[in-house]
Amino acid sequence: MDGFESCRTTVADIDELAVSMTRELTYYWSLGEAREREQNYASSTKSHNTSARSTGMLTSRWFSPSRLRDYLKVMQRLENQVRSCYTEEIKMDKKKFRQMLLLDGCFILVSLYGTAGIVPWPRHEGEAANQNSIAEHDADYADQIGRWYTNFVAHDLLLLENQIPFFVVERIYELVAGKDTENQRLTDKIAEYVEEILHYYPKAIQEFERPKDFHHLLHLGHMYFRPSQRMEEDSHRHARPRFFQRLLHFGRSYSKLSHQLEENDQVFSLNHQTYCLQAAQQRWRRAAQYVEAGVEFKKREFNKQSPHSLLDIRFTKKVLEIPCLPIDENTSSLFRNFVALEQTCPQFGNDVTAYIVFMSQLTNMPDDVMLLAQRGIIVHELRSDEEVSTLFTKLSKDVVFDFNGKHYLKSVWQMMEAHYQSRLNRWIAWLRHNHFSNPWLALGAFAAVIVLSCTALQTLISVFSYVYPPTDE
């Protein structure tokens, strides 16, 4: 009897919520129609039309009281599963929570063109007769919104606090398109939209490799920034010889201590402790400091045959190749949410966090930003290079990142640090920057070397003639 009463209460709650939502949606639709009439009265141009009509048509077909109950029943069945996806307890009551899930899911589905090409599934008699394709309304909707609205929606949809599990959107999609429709069509449309949002950034994922399994929209965007597997393999392959060079470097640095120790194991122990102490102080250096040590910064050119992501950074033969990073007013929000995702959900890795820490320390000063901008690595629309440096500083503030732990740039750091610590590399770079930067100075230095060599040769010949004087036969 208690179960029956509980079922009746649930049905009553759903009916009450359906009626309430229908009333609210009708009210907002009427406001849109009123605005449209005012605009049409003020001007007859098409550019003043709004999307109220197409939105209203979607509302009348999706949210008729009978259909709306079906959607709310699905939200009721998914409620506990959705609540379990969040780490913190959601104190919102059941009605508001279900309403939020439904409205947010529909907003994602329509805003990201997930309904393109779909004819709504007629669940009741008489619906199919007066039902038009949602694709027509989506086309009108897409035509009437501008790039500014797309940017606004993209910013809102990629906020960490606005994420809802993607299976909610998939279930709504099944109700709209029918259970026999494959969800791959939906995921492809959503992926296309996210690719459009991120079209300024290089991506390693190609069309046939589009992600099919993701938790929410921010996770999907995060997947497009992950470093490619080919870059990882290249880094490990180039890291081996450099790593041995670094070991030799440390061996030479601490060889002076060997005479104080009697046992080889004591030498190894001391070297190991000193190495660990230095490893605990790891950090990236400024771009200007690397240049002083002979490191060359180069923009990594994008290759469609072998694409790379924004995070694919490689260091080979004193050349550091970094993909081009475009920076505008949306960059800070995008990367802040990616970092927040990694900080709160460790299962998604720390690739973006490592990249942000790398860039923040590399661009510590405005001069470093200018250096990278001159090489095409950074292209920004901010007012000054100082703002770019400040942007990365703020992004890395209060971020938990273990330099000694596992991250994809660790081998790159080891190779660059070994290059930086080499006195020979720094000496050659100093000569190049201070004496060989001008071709006339280089020519003069070359002539001086020739004169010095000839003088030394002449001196040797004179000494040799004096030691071994010629004898008369």
Provide structural commentary.
This protein is mainly alpha-helical. It folds into two domains: 2-197, no CATH class; 229-425, no CATH class. It contains 19 helices and five strands. It has helices at 2-42, 52-62, 65-83, 94-111, 134-144, 147-157, 166-177, 184-197, 217-223, 229-253, 264-279, 287-292, 331-344, 351-362, 366-374, 385-396, 410-421, 423-434, 439-467; strands spanning 296-300, 314-316, 319-323, 325-327, 378-380. It has a three-stranded mixed sheet. The longest helix is centred in the N-terminal third of the chain and has 41 residues, at 2-42. The termini are far apart. Residues 39-63, 119-133 and 230-280 have low confidence and may be disordered. Pfam families: DUF247. The chain crosses the membrane at residues 101-121, 440-468.
Count of folded domains:
2
Tell me the Rg in angstroms: 33 Å
Number of helices: 19
Structural class by secondary-structure content:
mainly alpha
Overall mean pLDDT score?
75
Strand order of the largest sheet: 1-3-2
Specify the biggest β-sheet: 3 strands, mixed
Order of helices and strands: HHHHHHHHHHHHEEEEHHHEHHHH
Shape: elongated
Question: How many DSSP-defined strands?
Answer: 5
Strand content: under 5%
Percent in helix: 55-70%
Low-confidence stretches: 39-63, 119-133, 230-280
